[in-house]
Design goal:
Blueprint: H1 3-25, E1 29-34, E2 43-48, E3 53-59, E4 64-68, E5 75-81, E6 85-92, H2 94-97, E7 102-108, E8 111-115, E9 122-125, E10 128-129
Parallel strand pairs: 1-7
Antiparallel strand pairs: 1-4, 2-3, 2-5, 5-6, 6-10, 7-8, 8-9
Bound molecules: 2-acetamido-2-deoxy-beta-D-glucopyranose (NAG).
Keywords: Secreted, Self-incompatibility, Signal
GO biological process, one term: rejection of self pollen
Family: Belongs to the plant self-incompatibility (S1) protein family.
């Protein structure tokens, strides 16, 4: 390799390493906790951003579904509670959530509640009936 090539190769490595570092250190984790009453069954959740489809998740009662945000974009989620309840909301919104380590969601009988500290909750969405 010539000196020039070595130089640009190292420079590319530095760029890759620093963008990885920014991505990892700045990452927000989204948590969705099924906090429905006992025996109300599972909730099916499907979340996606512009470029990432997280697929369908079946969330049993009391279970926490979580993932690291990998795209700085809105993560849109749909929830289905058989037989007839559906809901949709933004699990992650850059303008609202960037800078927080975690975004917590509680899925309850009376709706969807947001918290950044897993302690204080604000209702953000409702169940609807099909
Ligand atoms: C959120 O709080 C609940 C109740 O205090 C606790 O059980 C749970 O582990 C917490 N979740 C995280 C991810 O810290």
């Amino acid at each position: 390799m010539t000196k020039m090539k070595t130089w640009s190769f190292s420079w590319v490595l530095v760029l890759i390493a620093s963008s990885l570092f920014i991505t990892i250190s700045g990452a927000t984790t989204v948590h969705i906790l099924n906090s429905m009453p006992k025996n109300s069954g599972q909730v099916n959740i499907h979340c996606e951003s512009k470029n990432i489809d997280l697929g369908l998740r079946v969330l049993e009662e009391g279970k926490d579904y979580n993932w690291p945000v990998e795209e700085n974009a809105v993560y849109y989620c749909e929830a289905v509670r058989p037989p007839r309840n559906i809901a949709s909301w933004h699990a992650f919104e850059p303008e609202r959530d960037v800078g927080h380590d975690s975004v917590f969601w509680l899925v309850k009988e009376d709706g969807f509640f947001l918290s950044w500290d897993n302690a204080t909750w604000v209702k953000e969405a409702d169940w609807e009936t099909e």
